[in-house]
Amino acid sequence: MKLGVALPLGDVGGEPGTLREFAQAAEAEGYDDLMLPDHVLGVNAASRPGWDPARATSANLFHDPFVAFGFLAACTTRIGFSTQVLVLPQRQTVLVAKQAACLDVLCHGRFRLGIGVGWNEVEFAGLNEDFRNRGRRSEEQVQVLRALWAEPHVTFRGRWHRIEDAGLNPLPPRRRIPIWFGGHVDATLRRIAKWGDGWMMLAHPPGEEARRAFDTLRRHVEAEGRDPASVGIEVWVSTGSGAEEDWREEFRFWKSAGVTHVTLNNSYGRYHHRRIAGRSLVEHLDAMRRYRAAVADLL
């Protein structure tokens, strides 16, 4: 199993020295991946009575993942980078393909692209993209991404994209970048089964509901003629509740359920997830070290 950790920018801030220190500490501890979420615009909650306080606003800090990971690629040597998740349909597909390819070159193939369809209509309006067709459009976007990464010249004619014998330079070192999907509706699982390298699952705590969701994904993968073992599954954990033995028990469950990637996210507090009480860099580094030490022999 792979163990990653989320960069807690909302707590510790986004200064270059802070990012570098956290990333280098995670790499030194043996973490496999660094994770960043994605939002471009945050709403002014003061002008929107009734706005869900758990939803992102302009008060929440989000570095652009491609920029932040490009910086951290020069500060690290081994640890990977993962978006969880990049809101793909609010962006121009060819530009995302270019940005991802350049990042993958600069970090020597350490990048994994996690994508989702988003929920914030305000962002789509600001970026001049259609919120209503975002799910269907994302399917074609994935096809465009894979084509542009694989070949020096591409001709593509789809419903939303048209490329006439053109291509990217540079191309990713492996001529592909792993694409993982976030989301929990059946349409998402079917997209993963058809095009995805993995599923980033947040909604279900350890238990039979999670196992059933994983089994549903595997059935969809088999129906597409693919090997279910070729599609990874990722979950988030936290040190916000319990102690070392509790964390080990949860980790054992996820391992028995076939989870391939676990990401420690100590600053997320939705669904069943609990964030840690501390907000300082020192407290986050300590929690990160304690969790890795607790589960190291189970990896």
Structure description:
Keywords: Flavoprotein, FMN, Monooxygenase, Oxidoreductase. This is Luciferase-like domain-containing protein. Residues 15-270 form the Luciferase-like domain. The strands form two sheets. The protein has an eight-stranded parallel beta barrel with strand order 1-2-3-5-8-9-10-11, surrounded by five helices. By secondary structure, it is of the alpha/beta class. The longest helix has 17 residues, at 134-150. The model has no long low-confidence stretch (mean pLDDT 97). α9 (244-256) crosses α10. The chain is 39% helix and 16% strand. The chain starts with a strand and ends with a helix. It is globular, with a radius of gyration of 19 Å. The protein has a single domain (2-298), classed as TIM Barrel (Alpha-Beta Barrel).
Mind sketching the topology for me?
Elements: E1 2-6, H1 9-12, H2 16-29, E2 33-36, H3 65-73, E3 80-83, E4 86-87, H4 93-106, E5 111-116, H5 121-126, H6 134-150, E6 154-157, E7 162-166, E8 179-182, H7 186-195, E9 198-201, H8 208-223, E10 232-237, H9 244-256, E11 261-264, H10 281-295
Parallel strand pairs: 1-2, 1-11, 2-3, 3-5, 4-5, 5-8, 8-9, 9-10, 10-11
Antiparallel strand pairs: 6-7
Helix pairs in contact: 2-10, 3-4, 4-6, 6-7, 7-8, 9-10
Domain Luciferase-like: 15-270
Organism: Caldovatus sediminis
GO molecular function, one term: alkanesulfonate monooxygenase activity
